[in-house]
Amino acid sequence: MIQSQTLDFLKELVDNNNREWFQANKERYDKARENVIELAAAIIPKLHHIDPFLSAELDPKKCVMRIYRDIRFSKNKTPYKNNFGISLPTLGSKLGGVEYYLQIQPGKSFIAGGYWMPEAEHLKAIRQEIDYNADDLKKIIDDKEFVTLFGEFRKQDQLKTTPKGYDVDNENIDLLKLKSFIAWHPLKDKEVCSPKAADEIAKVCSRIYPLNVFLKNALA
């Protein structure tokens, strides 16, 4: 579970996002990061039990993303992220591929899964899988419990035009125009700070698992 001190550190970082304050509070950061690593370590075996494509041998330290921002091409020059991210890739996927992703951020934590902004070759393969087997995807995303947890899957960012090779009258054009294929569920602070946090997060991921299987099959 996440300690309240971890959230407190992130809250204060928002108002003190500079190197001087961060260095003065480096010990607090190290403890907060270790807390996030502990949560990742607790989640990994539970997710492996749900999704065998996620290795039980994942290193939780490597799954916790850097807090340092790349500001070279950004107008926002604050040097640190105001959250901790945990990327849990499935076998054969690099970070940012078909994965589960947990973000710890005061008042804005969430658990997600799927594939965010696939590269062109993968996007083409996923669209082809949708074209061939749309009913399989719709069975997953239109399930009542799925919609309750994650909302309307089709309301993600879409192309404004019809993707190349598909007809505007295609009955599944709303799915074919998607740029990402993500299931996203918000988490309250009291949920991430609960002793049952790892169990509850794994339970949500069990509902994401069929989506990840569909996406993995598309890329096979």
Automatic annotation (TrEMBL):
Coiled coil: none annotated. It comes from the Bacteria. Pfam families: DUF2461 (PF09365). This is DUF2461 domain-containing protein. It comes from Mucilaginibacter phyllosphaerae. The lineage of its organism: Bacteria, Pseudomonadati, Bacteroidota, Sphingobacteriia, Sphingobacteriales.
